[in-house]
Specification:
The chain has 286 residues and is mostly beta strands. It folds into two domains: 78 residues, no CATH class; 194 residues, Sandwich (Jelly Rolls), CATH 2.60.120.560. Helices cover 6% and strands 34% of the residues. It contains one helix and 20 strands. The strands form four sheets. Strands 5, 7, 8, 10, 16, 17, 18 and 20 form an eight-stranded antiparallel β-sheet that branches. The chain is globular, with a radius of gyration of 25 Å. The protein starts with 13 loop residues before the first strand and ends with a strand.
Length: 286
């Protein structure tokens, strides 16, 4: 079957869609026409590797317009498959190989990122000092975040936190919402430097300090569900507009309301204790 540009394709051969600068797939790259008729194409559909297949069959003698409309629908779907990140599609913030897509801020500016955070045998390892945080290049507002962590086996568990909606001036503990990772307190939720967050009156925290966190607002967890130090834990965090819900190892442990809504990076702290991460996955919410 003749193809544009002089190439050819045999019936039954798999052909990859070709993307144009505008992000669409040109139908003429994988469908051949002759005077408005389609030759050798019984039907077409999605196949392996997101490709379209030329399939054997008799000539289809439908009008060109109708077939082009069908191909346009397929092309639009192919364009969606090439989208790097959209609502509903998980993004692996940590790729298990390196720290591409992340930056760092440390209280000791002369210390390099690699001296605090590294990737070892597929794990993100944080040494815990000096104080600071690793944060994504991308900003996110509403999302589901899955974080799997453990305190380094054989070491004393320390402090850490998952930071969300980071904003304001860079500092060792930035303005943000935190899901606590301190051993024994995973599930506590805080807003630093006046970052708004609220919840059950009996569990609310409102502390105007002069420390590195500034004005702290927060909600203590309803219950704990951490595994012993050295074992893996799983955080499932859903931050949707002003609502925040967190689960630890499959059990809901806290919820908050009236969270300040602003897009910002996601971060992981360095705040004492060697900690490992094997999964940091974010799914945006419309």
């Amino acid at each position: 079957m003749a193809m544009p540009g002089g190439s050819s394709v045999e019936r039954g051969q798999w052909v990859r869609p070709i993307e144009t600068p505008g992000g669409t797939v040109r139908a003429t790259e994988y469908l051949a026409t002759d005077r408005g008729r389609w030759h050798g194409v019984g039907h077409f559909g999605f196949g392996r590797q997101n490709a379209l297949r030329f399939q054997t069959g008799s000539d289809i003698k439908e009008p060109m317009k109708t077939l082009l409309q069908s191909v346009a629908v397929v092309a639009a779907l192919c364009g969606g498959l090439n989208t790097r990140a959209f609502a509903g599609e998980p993004i692996q913030l940590f790729n298990g190989e390196n720290l591409r897509g992340w930056q760092a801020y440390l209280s000791q500016h002369g210390v390099a990122r690699r001296e605090v955070w590294s990737v070892e045998e597929g794990l993100l390892v944080c040494k815990g000092e000096p104080m600071g945080y690793l944060y994504t290049n991308q900003k996110f507002e509403s999302f589901k975040l899955v974080v799997e962590w453990r305190w380094a086996p054989g070491t004393k568990p320390g402090n850490n936190g998952v930071l969300m909606r980071i904003n304001g001036e860079p500092r060792p503990l930035p303005r943000c919402i935190e899901a606590q990772l301190q051993h024994g307190n995973a599930g506590d939720l805080y807003g630093f430097h006046g970052m708004k967050i609220s919840g059950d009156a009996e569990r609310k925290v409102d502390n105007k300090t002069t420390g590195p966190a500034g004005h702290i607002q927060g909600v203590k967890k309803m219950r704990g569900n951490e595994n012993p130090p050295g074992e893996w834990n799983r955080y499932e965090i859903v931050l949707d507009g002003p609502k925040l819900t967190v689960s630890v190892n499959g059990q809901k442990v806290n919820e908050a309301i009236d969270c300040e809504v602003i897009a910002g990076p996601v971060g992981i702290q360095s705040e004492g204790g060697v900690i490992h991460f094997r999964k940091i996955e974010l799914t945006p919410i419309d």
